[in-house]
Amino acid sequence: MSAQRRLHLNAFLMEAGHHEASWRLPDSNPRADFDLGHWIELARLAESAKFDSLFLADGPAITGTGEFRPPGQLEPLTLLTALSQATSRIGLIATVSSTYNEPYNLARRLASVDHVSGGRAGWNIVTSAGAEEAANFGLDTIPDHAGRYARADEFLRVAKALWDSWESQAVVADKAAGLYADPGRIHRIDHRGAHFTVAGPLNVERPPQGYPLLVQAGSSEDGKDFAARHAEAIFTAHRTYERAADFYRDIKARTAAAGRDPDGVIVLPGIVPYIGSTEREARELAQQFDDLRIPEYGLRQLAAVFETEPSAFALDEPLPAAILARPKLEGSQSRSDLIIELAVREQLTVRQILSRLGGGRGHFEFVGTPEQVAGTITDWFVGGAADGFNIMAPALPSGLATFIEQVLPILRGKGLFREEYEGSTLREHYGLPVPANQFH
Amino acid sequence: MSAQRRLHLNAFLMEAGHHEASWRLPDSNPRADFDLGHWIELARLAESAKFDSLFLADGPAITGTGEFRPPGQLEPLTLLTALSQATSRIGLIATVSSTYNEPYNLARRLASVDHVSGGRAGWNIVTSAGAEEAANFGLDTIPDHAGRYARADEFLRVAKALWDSWESQAVVADKAAGLYADPGRIHRIDHRGAHFTVAGPLNVERPPQGYPLLVQAGSSEDGKDFAARHAEAIFTAHRTYERAADFYRDIKARTAAAGRDPDGVIVLPGIVPYIGSTEREARELAQQFDDLRIPEYGLRQLAAVFETEPSAFALDEPLPAAILARPKLEGSQSRSDLIIELAVREQLTVRQILSRLGGGRGHFEFVGTPEQVAGTITDWFVGGAADGFNIMAPALPSGLATFIEQVLPILRGKGLFREEYEGSTLREHYGLPVPANQFH
């Protein structure tokens, strides 16, 4: 690791904040989800602070019933396309499912977003673990975990071939000769695989970044192997330094074993910072959020992760033995493992678990002063547990503004974070090259 | 038809122009397709002239080989989302296939575009007639015509239910009580049909227009029946007043027979205007385009429409008898019928047919002075052959600018076209209401 190693920071945006009760805060806009002005404000705030990118999570289904929390959101590639016109430099990473899309359509959309944003598109590839999502696409059960990742792998191979299908010298545009493009440089891909048959070529010129930055967020064994083959950035959830460092070593080793440069994979844990000018103020802030939580909501979410009913849990008991003893789920393997690990390590009741999950759905919550937040980020970064962080403000925009005003100056003082953008594309912010074209 | 009946005008945009050789003109930007600046210029030009909407055609496949004409384009909903942020009033109509998309994903994207544009989204529903498109989605042959329309009909029923799935009063956002939404007003749709099984609800709040303006462009029997059930605007191609008037009467009668108000369906033929200050100048302009045409390109396109090879045609002979005698195609029925009708009526050779199709792929080409263009538009509108037009400038932006500068003032002088926008949504420009919610 060279002296120039720089921290990467993404603004992970979510409605009125990551805390599940954020919409109830006095200053919150509870209609933030469908209010473009809210998103433009957040995008410009993050760009003014020179964040690497905006990131939006997603799934093609309603979240819960809507009773206790905003249950929907704008389709993320659409929202980020709109935000691309309100910003000029910040990267734009959308979560899109490889299970419920077709590679031709999605490769084309991502290439189009990369064109209209001037090379700022990123794709967080998810395989969609939920039963609610499956039911919107004709499936009565969640498709099996390994099968989803097999499809995702083939999806990526098809998408990369499509993005490469126009060579950079393909368009000649010789008006006098009447030759628009060299057809020998626009390639059919003629893919025939287990999941997809796609002739190509793509009907979009190769985008500025070659292809969008490829991001992955699953931490199951299948997920990590997939990441080692394809991911250029990894979003991950760890509640302790040790766990994060183990993951970091593991993923870098798997990447090397897959024949890729480990420095070409940027590992970004999430952090939910509750920031106060004193530790006591920070704890009071966190408590204010926790007091607004509706336990019934958390219980339903917990039941969904474990593919069971809320009645399977007793609030003042630990996780039921039947849950702990279950074999791997077909849905959210890494999320369910993370919750079990937390519950066992800290010997928590279900009520306590719900409190711990309320802020960031299992992500690392940190309560402290700006110096403490900056110190922890620095420790993880320097120690080899992270290449940067997904900043998950519990309330938006206020929590992001506080992080920018109070924590970023400390990180900049240490020379860890950029003062200005040096490049103009997302790949340039990450220090990653435009991929070679397989047809050259 | 009341005294207040107003003409509707859409700016049908296509790369450097609708004429297939437009990219070769001295002033053309041959890289227009992927140059966002080009599209923003066109969008602002059309909005400054108070056009009802922008319209983009599309298909999920490359057009030709690229040798003779720009073969690709940005995905239209992505492009229109970007343009929504450079404009504030003009409608935004994207062509998207019901054959190669899933209703949950597409309903969500369209609702999202409607949200971020403030109620300006329109969907031109196509069933995708081409073999090249089929080959990008695992199909070795074009899916049959009737089957595509049956799928489209079910697709629309699912999409409308999803758009309706949030009642307008669903979100309560009662912070104190911790009640976000009334779950009794966010509805599952539980659709189970021949093509789709979709649980719902949509994860996007009902959009400003209720649902996007629904547009249809196929003129086959299946297409017209589909339009009578679902379409609120119809894009159509007719080369004579008589044909257009026949179609107009037919579609209004079918709409009434389907139990809908015929005035709720806006019929918009395409027109490709070659405008000169004298008839002679206009003819010279049209000739300038025709001289740049590459016959080999047109021949390949003609062969594709008739699902055959270019070698099936002889340039200086009429259409082969074998083509005229063929039964209905599975692909582009209305386009192939239109070409046959033109060729037979005017006793054209293949070479002459290619010249007639070069400007607008079969749409009505009109060569004349601004007064003549305005007169023809007025005649079709007043006589009952059109409720307005899709303006298909042979070169862009120049042909659109000429139409705006020279033809629009004449139409405004007759009181036929708006001076200013009166509404802010696309439905308001068309004088169409927000549809009732089926769950109310």
What report would you give on this structure?
Two copies of one chain form a homodimer. Chain A is of the alpha/beta class and 440 residues long. Chain A has a single domain (8-272, 369-394, 404-430), classed as Luciferase-like domain (TIM Barrel, Alpha-Beta Barrel), CATH 3.20.20.30. Helices cover 39% and strands 14% of the residues of chain A. Chain A has helices spanning 36-48, 76-84, 103-116, 131-134, 145-163, 221-230, 241-257, 279-292, 295-305, 321-324, 333-346, 350-357, 370-383, 398-413, 426-430; strands spanning 8-13, 53-56, 91-97, 121-126, 171-174, 179-181, 191-192, 197-198, 213-216, 233-236, 266-275, 364-368, 388-391. In chain A, the strands form three sheets. Chain A has an eight-stranded parallel β-barrel with strand order 1-2-3-4-9-10-11-13, surrounded by eight helices. A two-stranded antiparallel sheet of chain A has the order 5-6. In chain A, strand 10 (233-236), helix 7 and strand 11 form a beta-alpha-beta unit. The mean pLDDT of chain A is 95. Chains A, B: Belongs to the NtaA/SnaA/DszA monooxygenase family. Chains A, B: It holds the Pfam family Bac_luciferase. Chains A, B: FMN binds at residues 58, 95, 145, 149, 219-220. Chains A, B: This is FMN-dependent oxidoreductase, nitrilotriacetate monooxygenase family.
